[in-house]
Amino acid sequence: MEIRSTTDKDLDVFVDTVHAAFGHVPETPVEGGGLWWSALETDRCLLALTADGRPVGTAATHSFELTLPGEALVPAAGVTAVGVLPSHRRQGVLSAMMRHQLTELRAGGEFLSVLLASEAPIYGRFGYGPATYTAQLTVPRHKAALAAPRARGTVDAPAAGSDDGSVEVLRRAECGEILEEVYDRYRRAQPGALSRPHRWWALRAGQPPISPAPRYIAVHRDPDGVPDGYASYSIESGTLTVDETIATDDAVFTALARFALGHDLVSQVVFKHVPSDHPLRWRFADFRAGEVSGDMDWLYVRLLDVPRALTARGWFMDGELVLDVDDPFLGEHGRYLLTVRDGKADCVPTDRKPDLSLDISDLGSVYLGGTAPSTLVRAGHIRAHHPGAATLADTLFRTDRPPHCLHWF
């Protein structure tokens, strides 16, 4: 079997192969773009070929930026379009492609890889761990009343309960530049968020509101008229569904939610991609008004260079931790001393006794701060070598803001 990078001439073969792997038929091109594969970077796509040259597998990566705790922006390879023809599954094709891809990414100087898993069990064996989570919130209109905030405001959130801005309803075709600019401001401050390169918006390659699917956009503007949030939504059969809500602070999010919940002629409002710990549920007069469903993993993270990855993110507590990290897929093992001082980390090989022993996928899960190391200790995935190790790790990896990712790729 041969695994090679593609060229522009291979795009049709690549697209046909990945669709066949999933049993889908490629969409018919429409005016205005919107084909998800149009954003693929052909020099970052792989084809697996049989000895006689037949394509049987695909894998690709997008060039993204990932926001880490501490608002550090780092390159991250977004793995996508991974598929193997049904006739060639369980013959080592997928493992060979994943190993080839990870080796190429590391050779190119990349130290983080991310993906969205179509099936949760698949990618753990390749070193990926779930690192962000998302849920859906469904609110019947008759329970949608918001309670007045009890707090007058704090230094950290002086406008948590008030909003002096305005909301304007636009069609998707009228506000492309606004969406791109507001999303970019949001993702730079949100741990776990991925960039949306300009070409995605220009090609309309993705899910709403990137795609050309008809949508209304509620754009929030601050008192000076500057856009600082939006909600992309559609209405069908009495249900208003919000594809995504992008807001630069909680007051803006609440204003957009209030707009959606106050819409006439709908029986319920569905908010997609809401973090399970989002304060919106606490804003309802009836705490049970919002029904949480679809609570699931979203962004998976894979570390390709442990010291580089750990020193790239910001930290919020000082301390030391010795991590014994096993990477069975790449046949590697390392023990590292993580030392954090004043928000910065140093990570070097060590022969000191470990505090924690863990798989590289577990390190991916805790990396962004969305999964507590103690949770994985209790689950039997991470081994704590002394009673205080899990608490110490929780303290170090904790972040000031939970990670969240909205982007589909």
From TrEMBL:
Acetyl-CoA binds at V82, G83, V84, R90, Q91, G92, V93, L94, S95, S118, E119. Residues 1-152 form the N-acetyltransferase domain. InterPro entries: Acetyltransf_17, Acetyltransferase_Eis, Acyl_CoA_acyltransferase, Eis_dom, GNAT_dom, NAcTrfase_Eis, SCP2_sterol-bd_dom_sf. One of its GO terms (biological process) is aminoglycoside antibiotic catabolic process. One of its GO terms (molecular function) is aminoglycoside N-acetyltransferase activity. The keyword Plastid does not apply. The active site is at Y123 (proton donor), F409 (proton acceptor). Keywords: Acyltransferase, Transferase. Pfam families: Acetyltransf_17 (PF17668), Acetyltransf_9 (PF13527), SCP2_2 (PF13530). HAMAP family: Eis. Homohexamer; trimer of dimers. Belongs to the acetyltransferase Eis family. This is Acetyltransferase. It comes from Streptomyces viridochromogenes (strain DSM 40736 / JCM 4977 / BCRC 1201 / Tue 494).
